[in-house]
Amino acid sequence: MARNTYGGTDRVRWGVIGLGWFGEIHADTLAGMPGIELAALCTRRAERLNELADRYGARGRYTDYKDLLADPSVDVVSITTHVHDHRQIAVDALQAGKHVLLEKPMAAAVEDCERIVEAARQSEARFMVGHICRFDPRVALAKQAIDEGRLGRIVSMHARRNLSKAIGEANLDKISALLGDGIHDADLMLWFSGAAPLSVYAQEVHPGRCKYADGAWAMIRFDSGAVGVVETIWHLPNSTPFAIDARMEIIGTEGALYIDCGQTGLEIHGSEGPRTPDTMYWPIVFGERFGALRAELRYFADCIVEGKRPDRITPEESRDYHAYALGWMYRSSDLTAAFGRAQLTKMDRQPSTVEAMKPPNRAHSPEPPQEPMDHMDTAR
């Protein structure tokens, strides 16, 4: 890391691998953060690379991520590529000594997640999966209230995370709604409750013409006795004034809480009708990015500067939550996350084991998987 005068701390030199929609948002956010230098960008598309490098003043320009990893002027990388590429790039980056912020979903299969976890264990570099919702102040305050015991024992959790048809049509040939956005709620339910799923039942609807279903519901029984329901539909009318309809209800034996992430607190009425712009995740305010993504990036940068491993979310947690989310993709009521939980216990005892969380023998299930595990994309 290079020295600068920002608070007397080190300047973290950052590279971004993958310059699609969210890679650009990473680059845009990093370029405006004190104490961080956007040092390098990487994409296979030369024209796109030069466009963004010129815009943000990044000196390093690479069409091969391995060349970026060999650059000694880069300390940390954001990996915002297609999920199929996550395993190899993350492992190579950790072995090259780079700190890694890997966007969710962690990888295309649980075996890939475990390989990344192994690489993180063996590396002195810091590693974190970008679960942005944990950095939403509303969510963090909810977690604090739960940890303080204000709800008592959690008995019910219900989440919805719904988007427009336009977003569905742009993404449903690459990733399912349940995995693309439901993984946020998988993460939050497990984080809030500290419990593990015992059984999962899911159903879906497919009114559109894309490869994956437009909407799905999952019901989860946890080992604590709680029940969770996740709803994710990418089929809202395009005229819907809000960008996302995201809410969560947590009911306990002593109280309840309600998180409304769809309400941004700002409604603008113009010639195109009412709109509620993002005010929480990565809004642009007078030309600068703010919000939960910036907080997440700052947290990871501080961990690097202070020489501590991130504990807001650990590699093992990311692997486990990803495994459970993959389980939700199956429609069989006989798919048990208890199987996965037992396998994850084995993985912790034997880090080299990579058989974890493979689906149970399909001969015992009434239906085949509704969608394969290897068609996920890094939507957000």
Note down, in words, how this protein is organized.
By secondary structure, this protein is an alpha/beta fold. It folds into 2 domains: 2-132 and 290-312, Rossmann fold (3-Layer(aba) Sandwich); 133-276 and 313-380, Dihydrodipicolinate Reductase, domain 2 (2-Layer Sandwich), CATH 3.30.360. It is built from 12 helices and 17 strands. It has helices at residues 21-31, 46-56, 65-69, 86-95, 110-122, 137-147, 165-171, 177-180, 182-193, 292-306, 315-327, 337-349; strands at residues 2-3, 10-17, 36-42, 60-62, 76-79, 99-103, 127-130, 154-164, 197-205, 215-222, 227-236, 245-252, 256-260, 268-270, 273-275, 284-285, 288-289. The strands form 4 sheets. Strands 1, 2, 3, 4, 5, 6 and 7 form a 7-stranded mixed beta sheet that branches. Strands 9-10-11-8-12-13 form a 6-stranded mixed beta sheet. A two-stranded antiparallel sheet has the order 14-15. α5 packs antiparallel against α11 (315-327), α6 (137-147) runs parallel beside α9 and α9 (182-193) packs across α11 (315-327). The chain is globular and about 55 Å long. Mean pLDDT is 83; it is low at 3-9 and 330-380.
